[in-house]
Design brief:
Low-confidence stretches: none
Number of helices: 15
Structural class: alpha/beta
């Protein structure tokens, strides 16, 4: 397979993948390199007929792949990705503006997803129930087995992890013998095409995966309401997620809608460790992660020291040219996003917050930024600021920390820095979130483990390879005399 080589000054012309067939269209969407604004590629605007064909072909195809064959396809795809690490990392950086450090890390995570999905494909997760459990029971056994969905899975992914968000939906679908039609973000679609081609090369029957790009206003409703669709899995913003929930009537829905994750630093915490976690959790991936640290809640007795250390660590973050191997933080997704971050920080400063570092914008570049004396009602922390901003909120005691943490519409993840078991048990019990990480960033997890949130962070259904595979199956129950 030929490599996808992107170079400034040249424009790569991409095609749809409709059951593996490459389809070009005259109407295209331009993909730009956020650092320079240059057009690096075009992708087709799919027509409604293209979308309907993708679903029709997928629905008609019934995969007969064995568990072992699915395992081999996923493992082989992982080997191919590992052999093309540098190339795929460059694709991610060019389409997203993420630093090479971040894009290399993302490709590594993608290999983990494939490994876990491959291994889970080998696991027979059926159950057995004996029926002689009550006085009116019988000598029978009830068995369960999991089957792929009758219809097709629609997958819609965001820009912030161009490869990993896609592979978290595609790999479990392959592992469970399902068929999927994928629409990646029109801002970062190239990695999805690379992944599809790698899976085809690894032996995936092409009708099991189609990749569609286009104007969401033109094709999204068809992807939500097409009669061949059984399930919609979406990661992205709350307004679109709620639109999907209302539009995709009688389709199963898995909605992962972002977060406003805190790090909570108690008075007994290791402040050096807490500041290190805070900087990493706030700035990695240019702050564009649903599990990025968006709020830093710090006990007032240790806040001055924490803030000093946080500023020191922020000063050590190199931001700029995403292709420079030394760069820690590249651009955000586009100039519009960077302008928004500067605006909400400016609003916080005007309302009394203290700017300690950053808040410098140049195009899609937005510098790592530290704000102190932030109040919970300020927009920069009340809503999700999806960029490299570190807002510090000071609190008096654990009751106030829990109240502030729970005081937004989101409930995805959290980080708590303390060594006191009584604090830890209260946080685990009382924080209204999907996960609590003690002395670790909110986003820590294995690609296998359950992941997801509540409230405006999602419907409570979990992602992660294991949970996604469960969601992508029908459970059939049967009984036999025994």
């Amino acid at each position: 397979m030929s490599e996808l080589i992107l170079k400034p000054g040249t424009v790569h012309r991409e095609a749809l993948r409709i059951a593996g067939e490459r389809v070009h269209r005259d109407q295209v969407i331009e993909v730009t390199y956020p650092y320079t604004g240059e057009v690096i590629a075009t992708v087709p605007k799919a027509t409604l007929d293209d979308v309907r064909k993708a679903y029709s072909v997928a629905r008609a195809y019934k995969s007969k792949l064995t568990r072992y064959e699915r395992y081999k396809i996923l493992m082989r795809a992982g080997e191919i990705i590992a052999s093309r690490l540098d190339e795929i990392s460059r694709v991610i950086t060019y389409e997203s503006g993420l630093s090479r450090k971040d894009s290399l890390y993302e490709v590594g995570r993608a290999s983990d997803v494939l490994l876990f999905a491959a291994n889970q494909a080998l696991v027979d997760d059926g159950q057995v129930f004996s029926c002689d459990l009550t006085h009116h029971g019988k000598s029978r056994k009830v068995y369960t087995l999991r089957e792929p969905l009758q219809g097709v899975i629609t997958a819609i992914t965001p820009f912030n992890h161009p490869l990993n968000q896609v592979i978290h939906k595609v790999a479990p679908a392959v592992a469970t013998n399902n068929r999927m039609v994928l629409k990646p973000s029109e801002k970062t679609p190239l990695s999805a095409f690379v992944l599809a081609d790698i899976l085809y090369e690894a032996g995936l029957p092409p009708p099991m995966l189609s990749v569609i790009t286009g104007d969401p206003r033109e094709i999204a409703d068809e992807m939500l309401t097409n009669p061949d669709v059984d399930l919609v899995t979406f990661t992205g913003g709350v307004p679109i997620g709620k639109y999907i929930a209302a539009k995709a009537v009688y389709k199963r829905q898995i909605l992962e809608l972002g977060g406003n994750d805190p790090i909570i630093v108690m008075e007994d915490a290791d402040i050096e460790e807490a500041a290190t976690l805070a900087a990493s959790g706030s700035y990695k991936n240019s702050g564009q992660r649903c599990t990025a640290i968006k709020r830093m809640l710090v006990h007032e007795s240790v806040a001055d020291r924490f803030v000093d250390l946080l500023v020191q660590k922020t000063l050590g973050i190199k931001h700029g040219d995403p292709m420079d191997p030394a760069t820690d933080v590249g651009t955000v997704i586009d100039e519009e996003a960077a302008t928004h971050f500067k605006s909400v920080v400016d609003d916080a400063i005007a309302a009394g917050a203290k700017l300690l570092h950053g808040n410098v914008q140049r195009g899609a570049l937005y510098s790592p930024t530290v704000l102190d004396r932030v109040q919970p009602e300020m927009k920069v922390v009340k809503h999700e600021t999806f960029g490299p901003v570190s807002p510090v909120i000071r609190f008096k005691d654990i009751e106030e920390a829990i109240r502030i943490s729970n005081g937004t519409a989101f409930g995805l993840s959290s980080s708590v820095c303390t060594n006191r078991l009584d604090y830890i048990t209260r946080f685990v019990s009382e924080l209204n979130v999907g996960s609590v990480n003690v002395r670790e960033v909110p986003g820590y997890r294995l690609e296998l483990t359950p992941f997801g949130g509540i409230k405006d962070s999602g419907l409570g259904y979990k992602e992660g390879v294991l949970e996604a595979m469960k969601s992508f199956c029908n459970t059939k129950t049967y009984s036999l005399p025994w």
